[in-house]
Amino acid sequence: MTKLSLPADHRIVEGFHGISLERAESAIINQQLAASHNPWDWRGDGIYFWEESVNRGIEGAMKRYGADAAVIRTNIRLGRCLDLFDNKWTPVLQAAYQRLKESLSARGEPIPVNRGGNHALDRQVINSVCEESYAIDTVRGPFLEGLETFPGSLLPNLTHVQIAVRNPNVITGRLEQVYPFREKLKKN
Question: What's the pTM?
Answer without folding.
Answer: 0.91
